[in-house]
Amino acid sequence: MPTPLPTVTTASLTRAAADLVKLPLPSGAASEDASQEHHHPRTDVVAEAVARFRPAAAALLALPRGAKPAWDLPVAIATLAVDADPDEVTALATTVFVGELTAAGEVRPVRGVLSVVEAAIAAGYAQCVVPGANAPEVYDLTRIKVVGVATLAEAWAYAALAPLPVPVPAEQLGGDSVDFVQVRGHEAALRGLMIGAAGGHSVHLHGPSGSGKTMLARRAGTILPPMTRAEERTVLRHHSAAGIMPVGRSRPPERPFRAPHHTISLVGLLGNIKRLGEMDLAAHGVLFCDEADELFDAIQRQGGVPETCLDLARKTETWVIFATGSGDARGFNQGDHTLPTAAAAAARRRVAAFAEIQIPLVPHSFDGLLISPPATTSAVLRMQVIAARAAAEQRYRKHFGAEPTRLNGAIDQAELSRISPLSSECQQLLDVAVTAFEANPLAAHRVARTIADLEGTAEIALPHMSEAITWTTGAPVRQADELPPSRGRR
Fold first, then answer.
1. pTM above 0.90, yes or no
2. Do the strands 203-206 and 319-324 form a parallel or antiparallel pair, or are they unpaired?
3. Considering only CA atoms, which of 80, 118, 66, 65 is closest in space to residue 96?
4. Starting at the edge strand that comes first in sequence, how are the strands of the sheet with 127-131 ordered?
């Protein structure tokens, strides 16, 4: 029978680390209460130390639940400081410590450091000692001095007023790892994604396996405008709390891309008080919902409502991209990739109701890919998206003042009709499309407005509405006279 492992608490780690670096421990620190959860020793000595040097434990309430190892370093410093001369450890009065401690005396990175430092700033503290690997996350906060340490000895040296170097910013890695220039044979899909990015429209990619749905979605974030500093801070705070921030990075390398599995729990998707959900981690980025129809089923089985989830995504300015399959090869007639199975068609119609832009995809042969020219680079597409969003922002600021920036995909019907009314020809074309193809009039109006912004025109013209109907319904509409006469207009 194997020997049971001893219970490891902060107190035992403190003793082991202090012995290793030859730091003296107060006599009362030898006892501990190993029954406490989260590795929190509650001895009289530690309690006295925390009471005397409250900053050692302050601001840790900002940590996400489950990040309690971050208490290791402050409790260790407080324990070591019990018998110290208060005049020699005056830095403790204005310093917050946070970090996980190993028995070798190393200070390991923890989750939620940005939240701790922001809480320390709000509480009025002047310094914060953090693990060295976490320091780049908070180096540019100007209202507090942040010091990164690698060992307990370095942290104690700072508490004893020994000079320590302030961490330098981490080197920024350049460029995205993916780019649309790597894509061949999907020129129409790139046009649809650019329209979706410019107007903030949800997108539905549908096609059989191997048609490129995930490939396109993974590159979608590269054509979104660069994040503002406020957006970077939000993303950094979320990723720091979730423990997924790359070590040594001072800011997110690119907009978030999250692709939750279609069997994810409702808590995993939306989060709760204990953890962040995938929608939180996708804020200001891309949320890719593959097998979206099965994801909707999973949400409803757990008592959720897909519409509510989408509303939450819009509030965090998250670009939602759905994907559904079209069945396997047996579901097509003689290799024709335009005839999906009945079940796949039903799933596609269900998901299409949640997306404003429909993009059908078909697999390409290897020979066809070889002769297809490379797509436009993401940088070129991004510049067009930025210009279109700037035009929309200028237009809506005239009507809404200094309110938060709005995208075309978030404007309701009344506001859109007042700010950007349709001409009689466009309205007639839209009415016919509603009758013939069951087009969504609000989605078509929004998408047409975005297409006009991409073209740099103030008014929505007939070609803009025609293309918008194509994207919102999947119907190959090009001219008004190609449509059957409307039953609603003469």
1. no
2. parallel
3. 118
4. 95-97, 127-131, 145-149
Tokens for 79, please give them. Answer: 């324990």
What is the chain's pLDDT, residue by residue, as a tens digit (490 residues)?
A: 333 323 334 455 455 444 544 444 444 444 443 333 333 333 344 444 444 444 434 444 444 444 466 777 877 777 777 666 666 666 677 788 888 888 777 888 888 788 788 878 887 878 888 888 888 777 667 678 888 888 888 888 877 665 544 444 444 444 447 889 888 888 889 999 999 999 999 999 988 888 889 999 999 999 999 888 888 888 888 887 777 776 655 566 688 999 998 888 888 888 887 778 888 888 899 999 998 888 888 888 888 887 777 777 777 788 999 998 865 443 433 344 444 567 767 777 888 888 899 999 888 777 777 777 777 889 999 999 999 999 999 898 888 776 666 889 888 889 999 999 999 999 999 999 999 888 899 999 999 999 999 999 999 999 999 999 999 987 654 444 444 444 333 3
Map tokens 């009025």 to a residue: 124
